[in-house]
Amino acid sequence: MGNQYEVIEEIELLHESFANIMAEIDRVADKKKIDKHSNPMHPLSILYRESKKIFGRLLTKDYSTLQDTEQAWGKYQLIKDVLNDIKNEQA
């Protein structure tokens, strides 16, 4: 199950990672000239919303065990993989 220190450490890493990926999504959206607000169904808009939702919940009781943080890391990796696919698409 892991001790509370390990959970807090993972949450801090996740918090930083999700902040970075949201910034990266913004950079890609700007580069591809995608307005996330006026185009809410674009994959970048969806990735941003999902990232923001997780980011906002990281400091709540929703993420209180190592299993919770492992699930968040899985979501992070999926978002990162999809973002990389979008970045590598031909404009």
Describe this structure in words.
The protein is mainly alpha-helical. The chain has helices at residues 4-31, 43-57, 66-88. Helix 2 packs antiparallel against helix 3. The N and C termini lie far apart (45 Å).
**Total number of beta strands:** 0
Helical residue percent band: over 70%
Counting helices, strands and paired strands, the structural category is: mainly alpha
CA radius of gyration = 14 Å
What gap, in angstroms, lies between the N and C termini? 45 Å
The residue ranges in which pLDDT falls below 50 over 5 or more consecutive positions are none
Element pattern in H and E: HHH
Mean pLDDT: 94
Shape: elongated
Helix count from the secondary structure assignment: 3
Strand content: under 5%
Q: What summary fits the major beta sheet?
A: none
Search tags:
single chain; 91 residues; mainly alpha; 3 helices
Provide a quick synopsis of the model.
The model has no long low-confidence stretch (mean pLDDT 94).
Topology, element by element:
Blueprint (H helix, E strand, L loop, with lengths): L3 H28 L11 H15 L8 H23 L3
Helix pairs in contact: 1-2, 1-3, 2-3
